[in-house]
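FAQ: What does a multi-protein file look like?

Like this. Sequence, then tokens, then the next protein.
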Amino acid sequence: MFEIKHKKTGEILHTLDYQSLRGVTLHGIDFQNADLVGLDFSGAKFHTCNFADADCHEVNFSGASFNNCLLKRAILHDAILVDANLSDAHLDVAELKNVNAEKLIMRYAKANNADFSGANLKNADLSFSDLRSNFSRANLSSANLYGADLTNADLTHANLEKADMSGAKIMNAKFNFAKMAGSIGTNGMPWGAHTTKTATKKAWWQVWRRAAV
């Protein structure tokens, strides 16, 4: 049995009657402001759960899935999210410093003003997500950023090697000292490459006719 307490008052919010929290399926649980520090939720399935303002640092969420869940302002620094699924999740202003989220699936998520500094997001799928956030020193190598909104994002010292940013929005984003080798830019071409218009070749008879005039 696990007693879930309020992170400040110590009030018991929920009692989860399980021998282990690994692989559990939870529906509609309100974890707002809860103290979940260090718990092992690996492989868990969360449906319409509220983690807003919850303290989840150092929690093991590896392989967990979050269906229609709210994680606004959640504290997730140093948590494990390897192979987790946060698609469509709301992570605005969430703290994910140094999180280990390799192979994370986070498509269509809303993560505006979140802090991913130092996070490991290698091979993560972040396509079509709102990522107007802090990714300084984050590892985004081989990440899928297709169609993502990186407007004003801070990618200073980030590793974006082999990342795909095709169709992404990067206006005013900071790429100072970022590693970009092998990455794909917003135009679908290797980073730094520019499309150029090639001259249209005229048919041989048009060239001959012009010369004869």
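And here is the next protein:
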Amino acid sequence: MTPYEDKTLKDSLQEEKRKLKNMNLKDRLWYIWEYYKIPILGILIALTLIGSIGSAMYQNRFETALSCFILNSRPGSDTDRLSSYFDQDFRQYAGLAEDVKIDVDSSISLTFDEAAMSELTYASLAKITAVISSKDLDIMIGNPETANHYGSLGGFIDLKEFLPAEVYEKVKDRLYMTTNEETGETTATGVLIGETDFCQRTGLSMEEPVLSVVSNSTRTDISLKLVLYVLGL
């Protein structure tokens, strides 16, 4: 840069400084936004992208130990109780290291009544389908309607085969049965957990919650530990 160009830049900056100095706050904000909004927006977009990439890179450092969807729940006033239940208490119960993730999503609400479906419902269904297809979901906790829908499609493990014999004997009267649409076979695709302390300890409100293990779960050992933990066994 030549001295002339350097002087011109300095003069321009000094002129901008004088303009802003003689303005009130409202006029300053208007002036800055009017004349500098494109570079400001560019910086904001760049910072957002950098933040997103950084967050993704940070999260990818950690292995996922368990992924759980809790459907059609209503959160209580103390939202920290859900995190405490899974990320602290269950983590300790299962002997999981601090550097592994426990993913819990309790934000999804579903209905299978076509007249009541919205764009959000279809988006939620697509999300669940994608996560199950990629074998990234292990546990689903929902109401009987949800258990019936996915159970009839063969989406859940038969708990009679999955649970240890001594555990099955203790909970067999609380198993939730569904009939597979394709095979006609009726199996224990869930367990009723309404009488456990799950809702009380997580702060969630649910009607007749049913816990199921997704049929293509790749983390069945941790899934079993969660089932036993929720049941208090």
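Q: Is there any per-entry metadata?
A: Some entries carry free-text notes. For the entry above: The CA atoms of residues 78 and 110 lie 23 Å apart.
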